[in-house]
Amino acid sequence: MADRGSGLTRYRSIILSLGSMFTALRVALLSALMLSSVIWFSSLRVRFTPATAAVNIQIVGVYTTNSTGYNMTTFKRGQTVIAWVAVRNLGLDVDLSPLGPITWVEVTDPRNAPFTVQFHIGVLLGGGRITRAGFNVRLDYGPGLTDIPTGTYKVSGFVSDKMISQGGSFFAPQVSTTFEVSS
Q1: What is the pTM of this model?
Q2: pLDDT digits over 29-50, tens only?
Q3: Phi/psi at 148 (5° precision)
Q4: Structural contact between residues 62 and 159, judged by C-beta atoms closer than 8 angstroms
Q5: Are 183 and 76 in contact (CB under 8 A)?
Q6: In CATH, what number does 52-182 get?
């Protein structure tokens, strides 16, 4: 029980049985260990670095290939484009499982209308290593291939900490490239 009458807290213990005495001894031992560890830790100088300070992410490239990995910028209706986003993380590994980090690709058609938005959730390795994410973009939709507009398509890459709809924010400015679609 604590005596709250004075500025100091006093504790009284009543030992009711042998079992209570062992409990009191265990509590005393744990208290002594905790007190000594607090005194030991308080003498250390501890420096905390916020996790966000260790994040340094750059999108180093956005490019397109065909389905065999050959770099291409001109495609025909019905073909498959692989849109790649290459990300360099100069900080620590970033693993925000299960919600991020997220690498995004957005493809807009020649009318500046969204053609596809896709994302990949995975670890971004640190230490300057580059992580690539490839996104399958099939150049067809609607009842026939003639629905696909010909012209210049824009591919933009993004990296965020989590879904934007869940309050996520982007780690780096977007990087874009273009490719052409002919009939």
Answers
A1: 0.68
A2: 555 545 454 444 444 444 433 4
A3: -75, 120
A4: no
A5: yes
A6: 2.70.50.60
